[in-house]
Amino acid sequence: xxxxxxxxxxxxxxxxxxxxxxxxxxxxxxxxxxxxxxxxxxxxxxxxxxxxxxxxxxxxxxxxxxxxxxxxxxxxxxxxxxxxxxxxxxxxxxxxxxxxxxxxxxxxxxxxxxxxxxxxxxxxxxxxxxxxxxxxxxxxxxxxxxxxxxxxxxxxxxxxxxxxxxxxxxxxxxxxxxxxxxxxxxxxxxxxxxxxxxxxxxxxxxxxxxxxxxxxxxxxxxxxxxxxxxxxxxxxxxxxxxxxxxxxxxxxxxxxxxxxxxxxxxxxxxxxxxxxxxxxxxxxxxxxxxxxxxxxxxxxxxxxxxxxxxxxxxxxxxxxxxxxxxxxxxxxxxxxxxxxxxxxxxxxxxxxxxxxxxxxxxxxxxxxxxxxxxxxxxxxxxxxxxxxxxxxxxxxxxxxxxxxxxxxxxxxxxxxxxxxxxxxxxxxxxxxxxxxxxxxxxxxxxxxxxxxxxxxxxxxxxxxxxxxxxxxxxxxxxxxxxxxxxxxxxxxxxxxxxxxxxxxxxxxxxxxxxxxxxxxxxxxxxxxxxxxxxxxxx
Length: 538
Ligand code: 1PR
Fold this sequence. Notes:
The protein has 538 residues and is α/β, with parallel strands linked by helices. 28% of the residues lie in helices and 26% in strands. The strands form 6 sheets. Strands 2-1-3-4-14-13-12-9 form an 8-stranded mixed beta sheet. Strands 15-17-18-21-22-27-28-29 form an 8-stranded parallel beta barrel, surrounded by 9 helices. Helix 14 (491-500) links the parallel strand 28 (482-485) and strand 29. Helix 7 packs parallel to helix 8 (297-307) and helix 10 packs across helix 12 (437-447). The longest helix is centred in the middle third of the chain and has 13 residues, at 194-206. The structure holds ligand 1PR. The site of ligand 1PR has 33 residues, from strand 15, strand 21 and helix 10. It is an enzyme of class 3 (hydrolase). Belongs to the HisA/HisF family. InterPro entries: Aldolase_TIM (IPR013785), Class_I_gatase-like (IPR029062), GATASE (IPR017926), His_biosynth (IPR006062), HisF (IPR004651), IGPS_HisA/HisF (IPR050064), IGPS_HisHF (IPR014640), Imidazole-glycPsynth_HisH (IPR010139). Its main location: plastid. It comes from Papaver nudicaule (Iceland poppy).
């Protein structure tokens, strides 16, 4: 249907815009990229997926003369959809890195969530919308969960009341979406919100007028606990990239051939888990600590192909560090991460390199700004940086035996030890380091991590439940979200971890790969136990 099917996209290249492109294409539309301010003024339908920091976004718009074009386009009530930073930039100003002026179309200041009130910042995950007025694109989604990832938000006030179409609650009520005439903007990510998100985008792409049906209002709700499917990937001995799964990190079969355990193909499995209702999918490239990931192009291809059909957040980890290849070409960790983001990752996860950075920080007390963790979170925001911790339990008779934080454990050690500390490891669990999981978690939070993926080598692949002592210790120590990982064997293990600890998400691998427990069974069980989850299936 000719021009109607063309969508203009304002992408200034600061993060993962691949998913929004994929979503627009899946919905049958072509994309025209904005090159000049005139492209904005000539657009029939404009999508602005803001990514990265507020100040950098404004700098880009101002330098290219696009700020003025954008204001004019919106003031003329032309069809517009801003996403995340694309909503925030419409306000007067933001407090991200001092006060920075925005486009000034909507009254209000974008401020940071207050973590001192017990709410973890960034606000990451599936939260429900409270519809405030008829808004064509949000019909039927009141009360449903959509995916948010941000540390800053705009607050409703009398001055901006007329713009607000929905709010969300996380500590305070904040503005989840705005609408005036044909101008829409959303704080959440429709391109990451599964089928609900795709239906929102579809309504925008097909909207003809501003006359809306009565919206469903839904009940007020809170942040859902996430269920994450994790795919450990590596090249097998034949050179194919496969999903594997270890027992306490050992991925070999222990047969005569001693081959790498092969549990399926990464792209197919990721797609399956999305359809089964996974709230997020993680890929961990488990041998990237020795094989350079940019030499490992199959992983980038896996990400690209996965992001074509998977519309929930994708995390990728493994090998994020500085590297010099055989030809003497030097790559920074930021280049590695950028390549992952360009290929479709929403978050990257750092293992070994974060341990070294935390050790140095604790030794010197100085934030150099040079570690991969600091550099990537400075450029892409801390919500895009996960630190993956691989601790191993070390039993103690007396907690004073070590300088690291030790806890009283629920199940005593082999010699009746009542305490343990959790020693961090690098290189896929091969080397223990002089730092505990507690010390590491606190240090990486200060260095800019936005989330912690907390594994436990002792529990990995055992199916006996998560290490509740460890997860409680870490989730109480930091104010960023913690993903509990390692050891899930049945749905009850998920409810246990959410009831006994402050984990924000729980991750499993083996039980999903071996088809022992479907993701929906986990969600049904959680819901029955009164734990809020995102209900829909893609
Ligand atoms: O150090 O930055 O290159 O990152 C390497 C990454 O690869 C780290 O995130 C590290 O956790 C991961 N990794 C390295 N070796 C292994 C291995 O298994 N040999 N996998 C590995 C980590 C643990 C979890 C697993 C859960 C749940 N696997 O990801 O999925 O334990 O399993 P379960 O539900 O079956 O119990 P770098």
